[in-house]
Amino acid sequence: MSELKIQLVKSLNGRLPKHVKIAEALGLRKIRQIVVKPDTPVVRGMISKIGYLIEIKNKG
User: Fold this and answer.
1) What is the value of pTM for the model shown?
2) How does pLDDT run across 2-56, given as a tens digit for each residue?
3) What is the CATH number of the domain that holds 39?
4) What is the Cα–Cα distance from 20 to 38, expressed in whole angstroms?
5) Nearest Cα to 32, choosing from 12, 60, 3?
6) Range of the domain at 52
C-alpha cells in the first residue's frame, strides 16, 4: 500500500473549526510539519476537505 506525505503549509488560525479538527486528526499542528499516512479513502476524504491548507506528496 502506498503512503502519502502531507505537509501543512498554511496556518490554522481563523479557519473553520471543522477544518481545524480534520487537520489535527491527520496529526498536523504546526506549519511545515510533515506526516506520513496510508493512501486510503478515509485519508483522501480528509485531504479533499482541507486541500487549501496542505501539500501532498506521494511517498511510495
Assistant:
1) 0.90
2) 899 999 999 999 999 999 999 999 999 999 999 999 999 999 999 999 999 999 9
3) 3.30.1390.20
4) 20
5) 12
6) 3-58
Closest CA to 49 of 34, 33, 28: 28
DSSP characters over 12-25: -TTS-HHHHHHHHH
Q: Torsions phi, psi of 30, nearest 5?
A: -120, 150
Query: Which residue's C-alpha cell is 499542528?
Result: 29
| Residue 12, CA distances (Å) to 22, 24, 36, 38 in order | 11, 10, 19, 23
Contacts of 43 (CB under 8 A, 6+ apart): 4, 26, 37
Are the beta carbons of 23 and 14 closer than 8 angstroms?
A: no
Q: Domain total for the chain?
A: 1
